[in-house]
DNA sequence: TTCATTTTTTAACATTTGTAAAAAATTAAG
DNA sequence: CTTAATTTTTTACAAATGTTAAAAAATGAA
């Protein structure tokens, strides 16, 4: 997904504003397995995914907990680092070789204070993230594991093909054994 | 909590901007039990809580699921209505007689497009909400019910005193019986 | 293709959590 | 104060989920 399309997701920006933004974005690539952002660090970079798929996970005593997947067009950012300037929860691991658009968050902040179009664009970006996070929370609290799995199959069939089931199980909040049982029952 | 303090939570606004905002805010009161926002409706009003406590819940086949509590200083808004113009998930019920600051979201939108200070203020408001929602999600996915209950006791002891345990149990994602068991074990 | 590695499924058993109903405690109203 | 209504806890049993280990299946590299 190219950078113009990604930017336009959060509302049209005037030509000039858009140029100011793209000027501070660089394209980077990293191999599968690379860790883009690290848990416990205050991160100062954010990314948009041009191509590839990534996961966010935290290391717990009980093992790794996967809590987010990002795909083409998605925004990769430690909101806790960016908003509160505090250590982030997430390791972001690339599950495929990825092409990314990289941006320093301080450049973003600077633009917010200079340009009202930008401030509103940034507002919409965060609003979209909030809606998605809210949907996740609602899904976790209202639905059974079976319902969450079915929902995922319908809304994100590509995810099931691209990501191994251990990560999916963790994302759904159940053990891999439980997920296997659910899949067996659906046959 | 007065309106100035509430507004200041999301960054200082110039005198003039602040006046424009307060001009479109009215103070209202409603009795305990009143439903402020309704599930399945696109809502056009938002509120800040001056005094009192409220809960957000959804009606499910299995009963009501409580997924949020709001207290003094908190923002009450259907993000889905406001951001996506779609039907909201939540009923907002007042758990005490409440004093609220009411605002039409279209007035907010108008200010965002006129005033960069406002656009950034609104951005910060949403950022704060996002951080809180993210924390909730992380808590639901990473922690056991016992840990979530202890966390709630430490960070929100007032909530335990003001809200009945059935709602707390639902909020924690467990049955009331389970919560009783947890409380019994801690004695 | 073959072998080694990784991933997924299955099995057996333990633990947790839910459901329904009753008892106890608390709160509200007259 | 007394009674009724609501809320919380307890009990007994059923259902769901986790853990560990092993087997089966799938994937990938030589």
Itemize the secondary structure elements and their pairings.
The structure is a homodimer of 187-residue chains.
Chain A: H1 3-8, H2 15-23, E1 25-30, E2 35-37, E3 45-51, E4 54-60, E5 63-70, E6 75-76, H3 79-84, E7 91-94, E8 98-104, H4 105-114, H5 116-142, H6 145-155, H7 157-162, H8 165-172, H9 176-185
Antiparallel strand pairs in A: 1-8, 2-7, 3-6, 3-8, 4-5, 4-7
Helix pairs in contact in A: 4-5, 8-9
The first copy, chain A, binds a DNA duplex (30 and 30 nucleotides) through residues 144-145, 164-166, 174-181, 183-184.
Overall pLDDT level of chain A: 95
Query: Count of helical segments of chain A?
Result: 9
Q: What gross morphology of chain A would you assign?
A: elongated
The helix-and-strand class of chain A reads: alpha+beta
Beta-strand residue percentage of chain A: 15-25%
Numbering strands along the chain, what is their spatial order in the largest sheet of chain A? 1-8-3-6
Distance between the termini of chain A: 35 Å
Oligomer: homodimer
Radius of gyration of chain A: 18 Å
* Biggest interface, CB < 8 A: A-B, 32 and 32 residues
- Let me know the number of strands of chain A: 8
Could you give a short description of this structure?
The structure is a homodimer of 187-residue chains. The first copy, chain A, has 187 residues and is α+β, with helices and mostly antiparallel strands.
Structural write-up:
2 copies of one chain form a homodimer. By secondary structure, chain A is α+β, with helices and mostly antiparallel strands. Chain A has 9 helices and 8 strands. Chain A has helices spanning about 5-10, 15-25, 80-85, 105-115, 115-140, 145-155, 155-160, 165-170, 175-185; strands at about 25-30, 35, 45-50, 55-60, 65-70, 75, 90-95, 100-105. In chain A, the strands form 2 sheets. A 4-stranded antiparallel sheet of chain A has the order 1-8-3-6. In chain A, a hairpin with a 2-residue loop joins strand 4 (about 55-60) and strand 5. In chain A, helix 8 (about 165-170) packs across helix 9 (about 175-185). The longest helix of chain A has 27 residues, at about 115-140. Chain A is elongated and about 55 Å long. At the A-B interface, helix 3 and helix 5 of A face helix 3 and helix 5 of B. The first copy, chain A, binds a DNA duplex (30 and 30 nucleotides) through helix 9.
């Amino acid at each position: 997904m190219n950078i113009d399309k990604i930017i336009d997701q959060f509302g049209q920006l005037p030509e000039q504003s858009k140029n100011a933004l793209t000027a501070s974005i660089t394209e980077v690539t990293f191999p599968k397995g690379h860790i883009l952002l690290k848990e416990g660090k205050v991160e100062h970079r954010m990314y948009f995914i041009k191509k590839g798929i990534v996961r966010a996970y935290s290391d717990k005593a009980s093992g790794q907990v996967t809590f987010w997947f990002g795909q083409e067009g998605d925004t990769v950012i430690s909101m806790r680092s960016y908003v509160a300037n505090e250590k982030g929860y997430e390791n972001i691991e690339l599950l495929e070789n990825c092409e990314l658009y990289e941006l320093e968050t301080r450049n973003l902040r600077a633009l917010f204070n200079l340009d009202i179009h930008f401030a509103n664009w940034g507002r919409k970006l965060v609003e979209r993230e909030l809606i998605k996070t809210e949907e996740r929370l609602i899904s976790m609290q209202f639905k059974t594991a079976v319902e969450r799995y079915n929902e995922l199959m319908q809304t994100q069939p590509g995810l099931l093909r691209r990501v191994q089931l251990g990560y999916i199980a963790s994302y759904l909040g159940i053990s891999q054994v439980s997920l296997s049982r659910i899949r067996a029952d659906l046959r």
